[in-house]
Design brief:
Helices cover 31% and strands 16% of the residues. The protein folds into 2 domains: 278 residues, 3-Layer(bba) Sandwich (FAD/NAD(P)-binding domain), CATH 3.50.50.60; 165 residues, Elongation Factor Tu (Ef-tu), domain 3, CATH 2.40.30. It contains 13 helices and 16 strands. By secondary structure, it is an alpha/beta fold. About 3% of the residues have low confidence. Helix 2 packs parallel to helix 10, helix 2 packs parallel to helix 13 and helix 3 crosses helix 4. A hairpin with a 6-residue loop joins strand 12 and strand 13. Strands 10-11-12-13-9-14 form a 6-stranded antiparallel sheet. The chain has a 5-stranded parallel sheet with strand order 6-2-1-7-16, with helices on one face. It is globular and about 70 Å long.
């Protein structure tokens, strides 16, 4: 039997995972990446799997939704999680990585796979034919020509929201006499630096933040369907799960204290009490020579960021290695365009993976790539793939993006809300939420293992 070739476009997170999955299943793969020939508004390197916003792949706490997603992925042999585990930095109960080391390890995995051919090229057209399977994993910063080509092929308009990047500070410029290491509720190791605020310091910081000058929309902020349009002065359509801190602050004076500056569980060893508010800093790499400000994505002007962020206790003399930024984040209208196997309904030889498909987050993007690579490998053999089970975290995430309310569709992170709830009689019997989640995880992993077993014995 002649297997079709697989062309994967984009070497962010979903693309390399899809390529490695498909190649490990015996397929010949071409992996195209436009960087460094053409960069984006947010990337800083031409590396594979560059982590743009933060370096965290979320919780490793047992029986949480992110843990379940990663647990399933590890059982399926996720290559990028393998790279993440081997480049992890201390981050309490979360999986965080040294970005540079993570990218290097992903590159090594690809270089060691003889069935993958890497091409540094910008792809501007999509081919839908009987000889090729295409996985489009070009990410939220898909170039305008390729986004317009996708519009032409699908006949549907793109949606866009705006995402932000957190600042990174030089560790040597942090005043260690004012900050302290702690993990929230002493959960996991104390790997986060905490900057404690008094009420007076918080009020002054909030006033400065809400009055600071923001960056105006750039020409690249306009949706790709109309690249020549002038920037709109209207408020940007932020993704609710990743609001800039200045936008969060405008929603109420205590909003930040119940969000990224939540002090609960962060006992200050100098006072024996929780601070009024706190900013957490997470290590960027194993050398611990830099930290990112957790949840502090913003799009203030750089000079304003320096002024406002130096009001954080311990950061009065901070040197910022990277300031926060805002960038366009594009995704397709998956409920109307995608099958549950990530195939375009109108062109089943083309699959969409990663954030472009409507999943949100690093781990979710890798998970989408894992599924796309496996689905593409089945299609290359002439087999229609079986979707991941609805009971699983991977299956529920894909089910959401392909079955969401078309009028209210927004990208999603993995949560237990996406998984099928327990049956009514079991819900009445099991009152404890943690126990319910444990049962959901147990069911999910059983269904996932069975799906993997079935996929290993395909029927043409």
């Amino acid at each position: 039997m002649n297997m079709k070739k697989i062309h994967i476009i984009g070497a962010g997170l979903a693309g390399p995972e899809a390529a490695l999955q498909a190649a490990s299943l015996g397929c010949q793969v071409v992996l195209s990446e436009m960087r460094p020939l053409r960069s984006t508004e947010a990337h800083q390197t031409a590396d594979f799997a560059e982590l743009v916003c933060s370096n965290s792949l979320k919780s490793e706490s047992e029986n949480t939704a992110p843990w379940l997603l990663k647990k399933e992925m590890r059982r399926a042999g996720s290559f990028l999680l393998q790279a993440a585990d081997s480049s992890a930095v201390p981050a309490g109960h979360a999986l965080a990585v040294d970005r540079i080391e993570f990218s290097r390890r992903v590159a090594d995995l690809i270089a060691a796979q003889p069935r993958i051919e890497v091409r540094r090229e910008e792809v501007t057209s999509l081919t839908s034919n009987d000889d090729l399977i295409t996985v489009l994993a070009s990410g939220p910063l898909t170039s305008s020509p390729l986004a317009q080509e996708l519009e032409r092929l699908t006949g549907a308009g793109q949606l866009a929201f705006y995402d932000s990047i957190s600042p990174i500070v030089d560790a040597s410029t942090i005043d260690m006499d004012k900050v302290y290491f702690a993990a929230r509720w002493d959960k996991g190791s104390a790997d986060y630096l905490n900057c404690p605020f008094t009420k007076e310091e918080y009020d002054a910081f909030l006033d400065a933040l809400t009055s600071a000058e923001t960056v105006q929309a750039h020409s690249w902020d306009t949706p790709p369907s109309d690249p020549s349009a002038a920037p709109s002065p209207a408020p940007l359509a932020y993704f609710e799960g990743c609001l800039p801190i200045e936008e969060t602050a405008r929603r109420g004076r205590d909003t930040l204290r119940f969000g990224p500056m939540k002090p609960a569980g962060l006992t200050n060893p100098r006072t024996g009490r929780w601070p009024y508010a706190a900013v957490q800093l997470r290590k960027e790499n194993l050398r611990a020579d830099s930290y990112n400000l957790v949840g502090f994505q913003n799009h203030l002007r750089f000079g304003e960021q320096a002024r406002v962020l130096r009001m954080i206790p311990g950061l009065e003399h901070a040197s910022f290695l990277r300031y926060g930024q805002i960038h366009r984040n594009t995704y397709i209208h998956a409920p109307s365009l995608l099958r549950q196997t990530l195939q375009l309904r109108s062109h089943p030889g083309i699959l969409i993976a990663g954030q472009l498909s409507g999943v949100e987050g690093y781990t979710e993007s890798i998970a989408s790539g894992l599924l796309a690579g496996r689905y593409a490998a089945a299609l290359a053999r002439g087999i229609q793939p079986e979707p991941a089970p609805r009971l699983t975290a991977n299956g529920s995430l894909t089910y959401y993006i392909t079955h969401a309310d078309a009028k209210r569709f927004q990208p999603a992170n993995i949560t237990f809300d996406l998984l099928p709830p327990l049956e009514d009689d079991l819900r009445r019997k099991v009152r404890d939420k943690k126990e319910r989640h444990r049962i959901q995880c147990e069911r999910a992993l059983a269904a996932w293992d069975q799906w993997l077993t079935n996929a290993a014995q395909p029927t043409p």
